[in-house]
Design brief:
single chain; 155 residues; mainly alpha; 7 helices; flat
Length: 155
């Protein structure tokens, strides 16, 4: 399995053309190593920390995005007057009228809820249920995000 991972990774890292599907041969071995790592009996504390760490990063990102959007929308004139942004295209993009509402916090809150449930299940040693709930939470959370963005783009 190590060869199945390292040989394609090294060979296609040396290739001059970087096409995404070159690395797809590594996915099977990465999945194998991830499952082996998670199901190894002494890894519960480390898996708990990794799940918590990455989960909190995504939760903070999804909760911070609407806050930053609302802040930029309210203080656009001040941001432009500081002359920190030199790109005229970026300044014109900041002028776009985007309606931010409290419903934009729903994906972050949904992901936070699924992260908490997943960590509780992991703490009770229900590893399969924990990862299933985490996977479903991430899937539905990002579906809410993409659905909101698609709906916003058509308005």
């Amino acid at each position: 399995m190590f060869c199945f991972f390292w040989v394609p990774l090294v060979i296609f890292s040396l290739a001059t053309t970087k096409i995404v599907h070159y690395s797809s041969l590594c996915y099977f071995s990465i999945s194998y190593f991830a499952v082996r790592y998670v199901l190894y009996p002494n890894q519960k504390k480390r898996v708990f920390g990794i799940n918590l760490g990455f989960g909190l990063i995504w939760v903070l990102a999804l909760l911070a995005a609407p806050m930053v959007g609302i802040f930029v929308q309210k203080h656009y004139a001040e941001l432009v007057s500081w002359n920190w942004i030199k790109d005229s295209f970026a300044i014109e993009n900041l002028k776009a009228k985007i309606v931010w509402s409290s419903s934009d916090f729903i994906p972050g809150l949904f992901l936070l809820f699924s992260l908490l449930i997943s960590l509780i299940l992991l703490n009770k040693n229900k590893i399969l249920h924990s990862f299933l709930f985490s996977l479903l939470g991430v899937g539905f959370g990002f579906r809410i995000v993409t659905g909101k963005q698609i709906g916003r783009a058509h308005v």
